[in-house]
Structures are given as C-alpha cells and as structure tokens.
TrEMBL record, chain A:
The chain crosses the membrane at residues 21-42, 284-310, 331-359, 382-404. Belongs to the ABC-4 integral membrane protein family. LolC/E subfamily. It comes from the Bacteria. The keyword Chloroplast does not apply. GO terms for cellular component: plasma membrane protein complex. Residues 288-411 form the ABC3 transporter permease C-terminal domain. It comes from Flavobacterium saliperosum. PANTHER family: LIPOPROTEIN-RELEASING SYSTEM TRANSMEMBRANE PROTEIN LOLE. This is Lipoprotein-releasing system permease protein. Pfam families: FtsX (PF02687), MacB_PCD (PF12704). InterPro entries: ABC3_permease_C, Lipoprotein-release_system, MacB_PCD.
Automatic annotation (TrEMBL), chain B:
One of its GO terms (cellular component) is membrane protein complex. SMART domains: AAA (SM00382). This is Lipoprotein-releasing system ATP-binding protein. Residues 6-224 form the ABC transporter domain. Keywords: ATP-binding, Lipoprotein, Nucleotide-binding, Translocase, Transport. Belongs to the ABC transporter superfamily. Macrolide exporter (TC 3.A.1.122) family. It comes from the Bacteria. Signal peptide: none annotated. One of its GO terms (molecular function) is transmembrane transporter activity. It holds the Pfam family ABC_tran.
Length: 418, 225
C-alpha cells in the first residue's frame, strides 16, 4: 500500500473542508485540554492533601501501645491448657511508653536497605501553664534533622526557624495554642509534665499543620530537651518513625518489624485508610469527566467524517474505479481522522498546559495551609501521554465506522446513478 | 501475446430489486487487441450493466470474465483493484475528476497508485498525454475552471496514464454537444489507429457507433448482432 499517496489524498480532502476539519479538531482540543487541566488540578489537590497526611504520618510507626497483656497467666498454666478460659475484668498493662532497647532497634533499622530514614521521637502529654489556667497539650521531642528529612517539618513552621530547636530548652508551639495563650516568638512558656516536673521553655517559632485540633495542642521541641524535662535518660524514645523507599511495602514491613522487635507497629495505609479512598474517588471522577469529554469530541469527528463521505461519494467511486481498493479508501478516511486527532490532541496538550499554568498562578490562601500560596497543579507527564493516546484512540474509533462505510461504497451504484 | 484482450463466457446477471429480473442472459463475447468496439441498444437492454461486469467493479454475476486470458471472476477486492488500476482505463459520461486536485494531479493519480514509475516520470507522462489532447495549458487549473469538453479530455488522459490494455467508456459523449462529441470521437479514433489502443464504448449515439470498427447490438440482455 502506498501510504504517501493515501496521506496526500487525505490531506487534500481535509483542505477542501477546512472549516469542518477545524471544528472537529477544536472538539478534540477542548476535550484534551480539559482532561489535562482537570487531572492536573485534581491531582495537585490530591498531592496536597496526601502531603498533609504523609507529612504527619510516617510510613511505619513503631511504638508501645497500652493494652492488656496478650498472654494472661492462666493461659501459661499447664493445668488449664486444654480448657477454655474466661477471664473478666482484665486491666491493661502499662509496659511503659519507652521502647525497650531503642538505640539498637534504630541502628538495625538504619542499616535496612528498604528504609530511607529513621526518626526517633518522644511524645508526652503536658500542661501548658498560663497564669492560673492550665491547658493540656502534647509535646513532641524530635530529632530535628531526621524529622525535617521525613516530614518537611519546616513547611509548617510559619514563624521562626526549626534549626533554633537545637538550642537547649527551646520550643515551637502550635498556632492555636499561641493564639489562646497570647504568646509570640521570643516568649517563655511554662510546662508541667505528667510526673509533675516543671520546665520553662523559650518559644523560637510557631507551627501550623493546618488541622485546628492539632494546632491547638501540639508543640515541638528537640529530643534532648524533651528527655531532659521529663527526667529520662537519652535512650528514652516513645516512637520510631520510618520512611520507606516503597510505601506499598509498609503493611508488610510493619508486621515484620513488629514481630522482630516485639513492639506495636502501624503502617501508613492502615492509619489513613479512609483518606486513600478519598484520593481514589477524586481520581476516578477526574478521569471519567475527561474521558466523557473525549467521547463527545469523538462523536463530533464521527459526524463530520460521515458528512464528508456523503459529499465525496463521487470521489470515492472514481478512486475505486481507477484502482484504489476498499482497503485504500478505508485507510484514507482513518488517516483523515487521525490527522484531526493528532492536530487537535497536540493543541489540546498545549492548551491544557496553558490552563494548568494559569490555575497555578491563581492565589489560593487558606489559614489551614500556610505554605500554599496558589492553587496546586500536578504537571505529571503521564497525563499528557494518556491524553494524546486517548485522543488518537477516540479519533481512530470515531473514524473507523465511517471509513468502513466508505470502503464498502459500490462505485457502480454511484456512477450509474448519474 | 494473445490478441484476445477481453473475453466473457456465459455471463448471466440478475437484478433483485424490486423483483428478480434477468438483466444479462448468457453473454459470450470477446474483444481483440486494437479493436474499437461499441455496444449499442435501447435504454435498459443491459449494455451498461455488461460494461460494469467487464470492468470488474460489479462482481455479482454468473459465468466468467477473462482479461488478457486471466480469469478475474472470483478474485479478491484488492486484486481486482490492482487489475483495474493496471489494465483498464475508464471514461464515464460524467467526468468524475477530483475537485481537490489540479488537472495534472488528477491525471497522475492512477499512476501514483500503480507506482510503476517515479513521481517525476508520471508527471512527465501525464503532461505528454495532456499535450496530445491539447490540454497542456490547462494542466495547473482546477477541474471546476474547465468546460465540459475539456473535463472529458482530462478524464481520457487519466484513463491513459497507466497504458491500459483496454479503455472502457460508458456514454463518454453523453453529456457533450456535437462539436465536443466529435472531438472525443476523433481522439478515440486516433488512439486506435496510431497507438493500437483497444477501446470498448457503450453508447446510444448511433452516429458515434456507426463510425467504430465493430458494433455489438444488445436487446433484452442478449447480444443480437
């Protein structure tokens, strides 16, 4: 088959019907542009919200949960081994919040190839004292460098610098807390620990996670400061947070580490199951809207090609009479359709990118997301690949039916009809 | 090389709409190389139908059609298209030029499809044919800028581009006035005499038919002389 000739004929047919061709291509352009914009915008938002969660939740968290001992004494007794034991009024056992042998665990985890980084943490409930009022809160003692590496904590510090946490007795408090207690950077805050220890900490910054309930209670200090005012040694760690190379391995690794070190472990997926569902639903919505737009564009192409075939009956008949087979004629019309798809699709990609860039500059300021200044957009090249692929696919399918019809036209009928 | 260009053996065709009707009844005929044959008959006698069977475009018939002693009955769509492209040139009552292409490109199109020569050579040959037909000045015009007679001459040039074994015409002068009809006839005559071109023309113009080498007269789907 002579593809150059077929392409040449297709282009000439298109040029003769330029206006209709442009309308058809604009349909595709619009579909693809909206598809790209919608996906970019939706996924930008998804990423933002995912980030919000990911930055607060480690992929795997190791900790000691307060719960009843799994093996009650009666179960250990040989006398009652084959009996069904009913035990009532079990009280949870406090094994202490500290992770036993934490230094060794951290060292082993850091050597694990699947783990990006390990951030130890001390979490303790406290009372913040303001005059005679006591406000309950939580202090996280963090390893500043590791926390920054894992959770980009600096994104959420609206005032001050997280490096200042390395100073002794410094603290970054939540924005809600700062507002409630009328505190600003540079002030001193008094803290009472559950054991009754009193400490005065200097405020070096204000943090804002974007979730009011957390900003009202959470404060952050360095690991050593927390250990010091709790009166604990330097191996006192309550949480070990892990970031993995592959987040999908989290449930499996959580189980593995939990068993290996004999502590509780929770993975990202379990901790945020509803959240994943939300992201998926948003993706599905944006994909389906985009695909619907393209199908509508496909119908436009189908109509225009059908009309063109009726107009060009004579040309098709003579092409067949002079030696073009039905197959050649079919390819002429498929080529025609693909040209519309390609031209419309590429313009669509460009417009999609342009629209995305415009949305990217629209101010979007909300108190709950301090680091976001404009609407978030995801420029994943994958969407552009999907867009152009789908544009070609739709136009090919839309062109196929008219093309098959054209290939079956009986030239005798047309020529004799004159 | 055999002198028989076209041969039919027992061609029978039915029309099914509105009722079953025998259009062609057991037609056996042949056309020799270099002949200028006309088929005449009253409207509805089946002469055009016969031509379209011979042209390989209509494949719904009983009997056999041989072109150059090669059986074409039962060949695939693609093979038949190739046979039409290579061996048959068409001139219809209506010119059927593609309005998107120039006159020259219209003539070249079947040649480009055949790909026997390079594009430059096809263009050269097309120009030669147009020159023979006195159309070289119109080569770069669009078909809608030409008169009816000129369009028909372009269609003849297109039929000639692949040096066909036979040229088939379906009322090629049907839409033309006397002057242009004569012109087209003279071209045909010249082709047979000077280039030994085989021609098979369906016409109801008795004057036109009278001047050809052989007349096949048809009536009610049968050849009567």
């Amino acid at each position: 088959m002579n593809y150059r000739l077929i392409l040449n004929i297709a282009v000439h047919l298109l040029r003769a019907r330029l206006k209709q061709t442009v309308v058809a291509a604009v349909g595709v352009t619009f579909g693809i542009a909206m598809f790209i914009t919608l996906l970019g915008f939706m996924n930008g938002l998804n990423d933002l919200l995912d980030g919000l969660m990911l930055n607060r939740t480690p992929h795997v968290r190791l900790y000691n949960e307060i719960k009843p001992a799994e093996n009650q004494p009666v179960n250990l007794s040989d006398d009652y081994k084959n009996a069904t034991n009913f035990i009532t009024s079990i009280k949870p056992k406090d094994r202490g919040k500290a992770i036993y042998n934490s230094k060794t665990i951290i060292r082993i985890l850091k050597e694990d190839k699947r783990v990006v980084d390990v951030a130890p943490k001390v979490t303790t409930p406290v009372f913040f004292n303001s005059g005679t009022i006591e406000i309950s809160g939580i202090i996280n003692g963090i390893s500043v460098a590791a926390e920054e590496e894992l959770f980009k904590f600096s994104d959420y510090v609206t005032e001050g610098n997280i490096a200042d946490l390395e100073q002794n007795n410094s603290i970054i408090i939540g924005s809600g807390l700062a507002k409630k207690m009328m505190l600003a950077k540079g002030d001193i805050i008094k803290v009472t620990t559950p054991k009754g220890n009193l400490a005065s900490l200097k405020i070096v910054g204000i943090s804002q996670i974007g979730i009011a309930e957390i900003d009202d209670v959470m404060s952050t200090t360095s690991l050593s400061t927390a250990q010091k005012f709790l009166g604990e040694p330097t191996n006192y760690i309550t949480d070990i947070q892990l970031k993995l190379h592959d987040i999908n391995l989290a449930p499996q690794l959580a189980k593995e580490f939990g068993t290996k070190f004999g502590i509780d472990a929770i993975d990202y997926q379990t901790a945020n199951s509803q959240f994943e569902t939300g992201s998926n639903v948003r993706s599905i919505i944006s994909y389906s809207v985009g695909i619907v737009l393209l199908i509508v564009a496909g119908f436009g192409i189908y109509n225009i090609l059908n009309m063109m075939i009726y107009e060009k009956m004579d040309s098709i008949a003579i092409l067949k009479a002079t030696g073009f087979s039905g197959n050649d004629v079919k390819w002429i019309f498929i080529t025609l359709s693909l040209i519309i798809g390609l031209a419309g699709g590429f313009l669509g990609l460009i417009f999609g990118f342009a629209f995305s860039s415009i949305i990217d500059t629209i101010p979007f300021e909300t108190s709950s997301l301090p680091t976001i200044k404009t609407y978030p957009i995801n420029y994943n090249p994958m969407y552009y690949v999907i867009g152009i692929t789908f544009a070609l696919f739709t136009t090919a399918v839309a062109g196929l039916l008219p093309a098959l019809k054209a290939s079956k036209i009986d030239p005798v009928e047309i020529i004799r009809g004159k | 090389m055999s002198s028989k260009v076209l041969e039919t053996i027992g061609l029978t065709k039915y029309f099914y709409e509105p009722t079953k009707f025998k259009v062609l009844d057991n037609i056996t005929m042949s056309v020799d190389h270099g002949e200028f044959v006309s088929i005449v008959g009253k409207s509805g006698c089946g002469k055009s139908t016969l031509l379209y069977l011979l042209s390989t475009m209509d494949t719904d018939y009983e009997g056999q059609v041989l072109i150059h002693e090669e059986l074409v009955t039962g060949q695939s769509d693609i093979d038949l298209a190739r046979i039409r492209n290579e061996k048959i040139g068409f001139v219809f009552q209506f010119h059927y030029l593609l309005s998107e292409y120039t006159v020259l490109k219209n003539v070249m199109l079947p040649g480009l499809k055949l790909q026997q020569y390079s594009e430059a050579e096809i263009e050269h040959r097309a120009m030669d044919h147009l020159k023979t037909l006195g159309m070289q000045d119109q080569a770069l015009k669009m078909p809608n800028q030409l008169s009816g007679g000129q369009k028909q001459r372009v269609a003849i040039a297109r039929a000639l581009i692949n040096d066909p074994l036979i040229i088939m015409g379906d009322e090629p002068t049907g839409n033309l006035d006397k002057k242009n009809s004569d012109l087209v006839f003279d071209i045909f005559k010249e082709l047979t005499q000077e280039h030994n071109q085989t021609l098979l023309v369906v016409t109801h113009d008795a004057d036109f038919a009278g001047r050809t080498n052989r007349i096949i007269t048809m009536e009610d789907g049968k050849i009567i002389s």
